[in-house]
Design brief:
four-stranded mixed sheet; 18 helices; 36% helix; binds 2'-deoxycytidine-5'-triphosphate; binds magnesium ion; UmuC domain-containing protein; DNA-directed DNA polymerase activity; UmuC; DNA_pol_Y-fam_lit_finger_sf; DNA synthesis
Length: 512
């Protein structure tokens, strides 16, 4: 069985909830063949949002932090019910343990394990349902918001990860006072490399490590959460290094260890930005390790992937990633989805659509913006290609129905069910048998109603944090589930560090 943390990444390829992150990547990264990652000096790309616009910096001068919370859903449950803290805990969705606390991990339980296997390994495992993501989403937003208190340059990656660009903070610190000669890194240094206090690049990262430690301490005191952090000169390396020591620890990778960090990855699929399909295509070229890719002639890679994607792949293999930390901004769509073994009758489809719309309407009402478009996505069962067989149809939402959505209640549900069923019939011929394994409904083209009233972005901001004045809010947050970088189809979407800004509210699994 292949289990995969499903996202809307495939769907978002042509959708308006796709982000510019991937495009930034392609715009900004040019191949630096023959240049060691640590000495590469291509300029930083322009940030999509001008918020906190970073000055042009050599890549080696950037300081990027990556935060990943420990056993996120399990932590949230343990905060809600402290009695669970001393027990091995598994969070269950369908027949899968989506995550488990570290005590359960000591008993051999792992993430994405079947419940039956987990129970065999650890009979005393306590199971809590993780189907309702509402609370996880709320805490997730609070985490990003706390981080935004330190820097406006915070980018969410799924529910439990955030990047933060602290380059300016490091600059400010360096201007304020000279670094003491006995300055050290807070936490681990990747490879146990020794810190050279005379090397500016080292000092910058060491300062970054102290900022990371401060942020992690704040996460703990203010939200009761622990997590890991990675400190590096770019997002790719920060993400790759952050889980080196788990849980509740942090690791800095100094530039000289870039090559080791890259080649220590257990395969190309581990490199953020190299998704399932890309890895398959690389495999057909005989490339399975990062080193294989590093050594592969660029000209040949270009033949297979085209110039720009080949260059990006090549750069990734070398640990080069100039993509900026792009403040996430308000979600551009809200969606909900569910996956299942089989839905093959119209009644079941109707029930599922009603269920999805109920929770979605509630969230849309809280958001306050009026959606102008509704999209239905289905996945048909396919024995050969079950990962990528999604199709969608979308249509405008009539204004009177849109208004009902934001005025609350479930008045809009019946007409939306009708619309959604019409979209369904555009894809599925009811006279023939069908077998669906996923249904997703997405509201997009979200429009604020006025500058100050409900429905405005400022309303959305204040909803996130009523205790915080709206003018202090930096940005509101993408509503995402996935925490992994996801696959993308080269040619369809840009390759790069693909954030899964899927807006889904459910984790779903393929193949179960
Ligand atoms: N998640 C999920 N389905 C997946 C992967 C993750 O529902 N296939 C959810 C549950 C996790 C959360 O996302 O708690 C964050 O994912 P991580 O991979 O970061 O895993 P954890 O935070 O749970 O554990 P770790 O301590 O290893 O980071
Ligand atoms: Mg985590
Ligand atoms: Mg994570």
């Amino acid at each position: 069985m292949d289990i995969c943390y499903e996202s809307d990444a495939q769907m978002s390829v042509d959708s308006d909830d796709d982000t510019d992150w991937t495009r930034n990547f392609s715009d900004n990264v040019r191949v630096q063949e023959g240049i060691h990652p640590t000495t590469a000096t291509s300029p930083l790309g322009k940030c999509r949002k001008t918020l906190g616009k970073a000055p042009m910096k050599a890549p080696s001068q950037r300081v990027i932090l990556h935060f990943d919370l420990d056993c996120f859903y399990a932590q949230v449950e343990m905060i809600q019910n402290p009695e669970l803290r001393n027990k091995p805990l598994g969070i269950q969705q369908k027949n899968i343990i989506v995550t488990c606390n570290y005590m359960a991990r000591e008993h051999g339980v792992t993430k994405l394990m079947f419940v039956t296997t987990a129970k065999e390994r650890c009979p005393q495992l306590v199971l809590v349902s993780g189907e309702d993501l509402t609370h996880y989403r709320e805490i997730s937003y609070k985490v990003t918001e706390l981080l935004e208190g330190y820097s406006p340059l915070v980018e969410r990656l799924g529910f439990d990860e955030n990047f933060m660009d602290v380059t300016d903070m490091v600059d400010a610190k360096l201007r304020q006072e000279p670094v003491p000669s006995d300055f050290t890194v807070n936490g681990h240094i990747y490879n146990r490399q020794s810190l050279d206090t005379r090397a500016e690049a080292h000092m910058r990262l060491a300062i970054g490590s102290h900022i990371a430690a401060k942020v992690r301490a704040a996460l703990h005191t203010k939200l009761g959460l622990t997590g890991c952090a990675g400190i590096a000169t770019n997002k790719l390396l920060a993400k790759l290094v952050s889980g080196t020591f788990k849980p509740n620890q942090q690791t800095t990778v100094l530039p000289e260890s870039t090559a080791d960090l890259m080649t220590s990855q257990a395969g190309l699929r581990k490199v953020p930005g190299v998704g399932h399909r890309t890895a398959q295509r690389l495999q057909t070229l005989g490339l399975s390790s990062v080193r294989d890719l590093q050594c592969f002639p660029l000209a040949q890679l270009e033949k297979e992937f085209g110039v720009s994607a080949a260059q990006r792949l090549h750069n990734l293999s070398l640990g080069i990633d100039d993509t900026p930390v792009t403040p996430t901004g308000p979600p551009q769509s809200l969606s909900d989805e569910d996956s299942f073994k089989k839905i093959s009758t119209e009644t079941e489809v109707l029930e599922k659509i009603e269920e999805l719309l109920t929770s979605l309407l509630d969230r849309m009402h809280k958001d306050g913006r009026q959606p102008r478009t509704i999209r239905l996505t289905i996945r048909r069962f396919s024995a050969t290609n079950k990962w990528f067989s999604r199709e969608s149809r979308q249509c405008p939402i009539p204004s009177n129905i849109g208004k009902k959505i934001i005025s609350g209640g479930q008045d809009a549900k019946a007409p939306l069910v009708n619309i959604t069923m019409k979209l369904f019939h555009k894809m599925i011929d009811r006279n023939n048998p069908f077998h669906l394994t996923l249904i997703n409904i997405c509201f997009s083209n979200l429009q604020a109603r006025g500058a100050d009233g409900k429905g405005s972005i400022s309303f959305f901001f204040t909803q996130r944090s009523p205790s915080k004045p709206a003018d202090q809010e930096k940005s509101c947050l993408e509503d995402t589930i996935d925490t992994s970088f996801s696959d993308t189809s080269l040619g369809e979407a840009e390759l790069g560090l693909i954030p899964v800004f899927s807006n889904s509210s459910r984790a779903t699994y393929r193949g179960n």
